[in-house]
Amino acid sequence: MTREEKSLVIEQLTAQLTDSATIYLADISGLNASATTNLRRACFKAGIKLNVVKNTLLAKAMESADKDFGDLAETLKGNTSLMIAEVNNAPARVIKEFRKKSDRPILKGAYVEESVYIGDNQLDALVDIKSKEELIGEIVGLLQSPAKNVISALKSGGGTIAGIVKTLSER
User: Fold this and answer.
1) Contact present, 22 and 84 (Cβ < 8 Å)
2) Taking the model in full, what pTM does it have?
């Protein structure tokens, strides 16, 4: 690889890292061609971009990106695959599901919404992270609940003013 090619790859990686809020680093070495293809298909179905990257180029891209990756660069040893997704827990779910059949991929680390997770022992915590849409749905549900209770109480009090006042005084 020439210097120009390397600098181009570093620029592309830097752009990907800067634009993404969810970045996972995994080790998929030891998977045969069939298993690797199955993993790539699972990632594609889940909306995850999976790329095998050179550690030195990824480390330089991490330095160039305007994010604080903490100790994530220290995990860049051996085979490294970069998983980039829109949904925070999608790569963790794919890894966990895939590991029911195999001992790989191994999670090296993750950067999720400005938080850094290092080590394979963090996989369960990453699976339990709720996506932005799930959190918004829960908040909307919690906000609607009291309003629904008041409306149903008003309806049960009857259509008269006396019934509504009586219902409100009981609540």
Assistant:
1) yes
2) 0.76
